[in-house]
Queue: 2 jobs
Job 1
Amino acid sequence: MSQTLNGQRVPFDSNDPNSKGRVALIVLFSSVVGALLLMAPAVASQLQLQLGLNPSQTGDLFSAELGAMSFASIPAMWWMRKFNIRTMSTIFGTVFIVGNISSAYIGEFGTLLAIRFCTSLAGGSLMVLCMSLAAQTKDRNRVYGLWVMGQLSFGAIGLAVLPHFFDTFGIGIVYWVLAILMIVALPLVRFLPQRNIAADHISDEQTGPTPKYVLRAALGLVAVLAFYISLSGIWTFVGGIAGASLIGTETSSVILSIATVLGIAGSALATVLGDRPNTRTNLLVGYLAMTLSVALLAGMPGLLRFAAAALLFKFTWTFILPYIMSTLSGLDRSGRLVNLANIAIGGGFALGPFMGGRLVESAGGYGTLITVSVTGLLLSLILILAAQPRRAAVPTPTAPVPQMAG
């Protein structure tokens, strides 16, 4: 394998974690496997219309998808250390392709549920691999920004374009597009090292984890969990808050669509800034702005206040996430900690709506949910700042090293 340099073809190093090919793999793989969940509103509606699924079945289907992607983190901690990751990525990519093509022709709920679980398990394995590879990069903030931005962009394009083809091709168009995108992206596995990930970091792990590391890692994981519980609880019921404030459904839908675009802008800003001025400052500003956005939803927000809250919320959510992931990867360059973060993300996504619905029902309104979310975000801020590694704890790579986002 080779690449062109100054008009001459020279071999490229598949072990270079900062190569453009490696970064492209991280962004494209994670964007393709995460696209379906980001297109969930349109996909869910079409599934109910085309297959006659009831709301419970639809919820179970997406819970299985999300649960499989989160569960993939557990076996990943084993296979990424034991097996050739180029081979394993090819296998998982192939399973993802076959699973999506099969899903396009299945009309029975139980069978579709099983196929989607297996497909998402393969996709989740690729997502975890991408998160681990991103943890090894020299400019982690920037690459995690690309990781988030890619997923949001694919999801936004899918939401805008694919529903126009539902009348002609049905829900199968979504699954076929995902399969084709993975077929296009799969050749990028040549930019992966043939050995397992652990082999890349033997020299960095001569000693076992210290108590201080374990404490920082635990604080970071709890910070991620609190962050996602807070944001998913609010985001799930933001439409309800608009309705309670007498803001029309069409109006709130337009605002939330614009917010999705701002979400892409937030991750883009994190990508451009990188670690300037520094990660702690960016985290502090981002968290406080996000907390303000949630607080703006309190009471009966008028149209302008609701719009400001929704737009600021989505912008800061995606701005903060790359810095959170960078903090965790700074604690563990091997990527094992961000594998566990994937479980915390899935758990937070599941717990947020679960807790939020009960808070709304018990309080007879959204005030308690908003208060709990504000508290959760402030708690997450304190924990992630406490988890920040000292500069000396994250050695600057002497050779190029590698490195997303609902």
Job 2
Amino acid sequence: MTWSVDEIDYGAIDVSRVRPNRTLFYLLTSASYMESGSDTYAGNLARHYADTPEAAGWLRQHWEREELQHGLALRRYVEHVWPEFDWEAGYAQFFGEYEKTCNDDNLESSRALEMAARCVVETGTASYYRALEAASDEPVLRDLSRRISSDEVRHYKHFFRYFNDLNGRERQGRFKVLGVLARRLLEIKNDDAEIALRNILRVERGRDDIPAAEVAALNSQCSTVVRRNLPIEMTIKMLLRPLHLHARVERFVHRPLVAMVSLAILR
């Protein structure tokens, strides 16, 4: 690990700058839930790469631990700023739903193509935390978001290297890779955020019957904040790398990709 959660000075949080921002509360809490449940998905992914020991070992020994640290660091931030919220109760309900979605059915059959898919996911998370950093002027949150985003970029580099190594053997064509990237880009706005937000609202309101329309509306509200602060150039650059395009081709597809990413990631 490049940093420890113990390095974060939660006592220095300027609560007055962030506590009134309810949308930021939902963004941070939902992110803390998804990161805290990442060990379940990491285990599935490590088993998927059992015949690639270096990748499986890195997933278990580094990626999983760092993702869990992200969840813990975000949880501590939420509990410091909004101590009245029962984080544990909401997470227990969230995980009961989330773990059912963590199965091998969501993995690509090709080892190389799954690594390409992971590049898309890491692009999304790195961009998300960069957007959170830009969305707030609270110093501790900005520092924490920057640390997590840097981790996600570093994770991306590992997945990208494993993709290159595996694809050197599999020889998956560029069109197949493009298909995976496009599909995962369109799926990046998946059910996980809505599962998290629904269970946050359940704890807040003390009841289970939260209308789906209200969850969708809240998700859209949160997405608007991220969209306004999305580092689009960084996002495009990371998405294109697995295609290994010539610089001239990258320039040609840049503008339509900006429109596609803006629409797909946060539609």
